[in-house]
Specification:
The protein is an alpha+beta fold and about 100 residues long. The chain has 4 helices and 4 strands; from the N terminus they run H-H-H-E-E-E-E-H.
Length: about 100
């Protein structure tokens, strides 16, 4: 997983994560769970990407292919709800969360 931290190309990073697995990447990068959704579909994680700063990432399950992935969110996000609002650009909940 340390290779990911050095790679600049987003597509190559995505392939590295796909091959290693998101769970292993999170484990090796010492992910800390900040918040979880009640349904267990979402987790807000805190990750240190090697620069000494911990940043929030939203871990979510893609409902169409049943694979987890993470996305960086605004540093002020400290709950899953705030992270979803940031990601969706609104505080209104969509009928289907993706």
């Amino acid at each position: 997983p340390q290779i990911i931290l050095k790679e600049k190309n987003v597509e190559i990073r995505r392939e590295i994560v796909r091959k290693i697995g998101i769970e292993r990447v999170c484990q090796k990068l010492n992910a800390k769970v900040i918040d979880k959704s009640r349904d267990g579909v979402y987790e807000l994680l805190s990750l240190d990407l090697g620069d000494g700063r911990r940043r929030p990432y939203l871990k979510m399950k893609n409902p169409s292919i049943s694979i987890y992935h993470i996305e960086g969110v605004e540093p002020s996000c400290d709950t899953v709800e705030k992270a979803l609002n940031y990601r969706n650009g609104t505080d209104e909940r969509p009928l289907v969360l993706t």
